Amino acid sequence: MMANKELEDLRKWKEANRFGPINLTPTQLGGSISEAEARQRQQINLRDARFQKNAKKEDYNRKRKEAEELEYQKRKEIQREKATKLLEKQRQQEAQRKTQLQAEHQQANQQFLQRIETNRSYRQSPLPPNCTAQTTAWIKNFSYRETQREAELQRLPEHKEEQRRKSELAAEKVSRLESERQRCLQEEHRRKNQIFLDNLERSRKSLENLSGSSPPVSDEESFEPHANQCVPAVRSPEVLTEMYQDSSNTTMEDTACRDSREADIDYDWNLMKLQSFFPDYEASVLGDLLLQCDSDVEKVIQLLQGTN
Predict the structure, then answer these.
(1) pTM, entire model
(2) What DSSP designation does 214 have?
(3) What's the rounded Cα separation, in Å, for the pair 54 and 56?
(4) What pLDDT does 81 receive?
């Protein structure tokens, strides 16, 4: 019943508050301009709105950059003030430290001068009768240092003389060792040359016995040029030392080069032997025969003897 009563009251309220009929005077809609003109105005307003939007955006960016630049300048000013304050503080600390060091230096100088004045007054003051029993530690130390200094000055010439003698002995020993080494080297060269000359003499005699046509020649005349060619020059100790150092630093390529040089030296020695045995032949012919026989001197000698 209550619900029906409320619904009835609502219906009655709606009926009492219903809008009445609307009576308007008929007019033409759209204003007094045509559709084409309205559309043209819309395009103009749209284009102007785009330009205004870009102008507003540029104005906003310009204002933002100006604000950032102003903030950056403020920060620079703050940092500059801090740096200035720090430099001023460091300058004050440096001045304070210099003042303190100067005061300490003056104080140290004053103490030193007072100590010197005290020692001078002590030295100039008359000594009491019992001075030997009341000798201070400073006087003992001073006298001890003076005696030590005098002893060192006295020993200095002796020490210099001893060092000079040691250096002379060392130099004499080095020179004696160098002379002995050079003498041993010369004896070794002389021994090798003598062995070579003996072998050469025996070969020549054997060839003379076989051929019987060569005229008699004295030993000195026949072997003097060979001896002059065979005797190697005696090198100085400095040159030998350099050669030893160079040989100790050689690599595999240096070893190969040295082997080739030794082969060339052996070839020259063999060619010289053949020229001494067969002086009538030319050096080029003997060289070709030696190369064909693989540097075998005995084979070349047998070949030439068989040819003769």
Answers:
(1) 0.26
(2) S
(3) 5
(4) 93
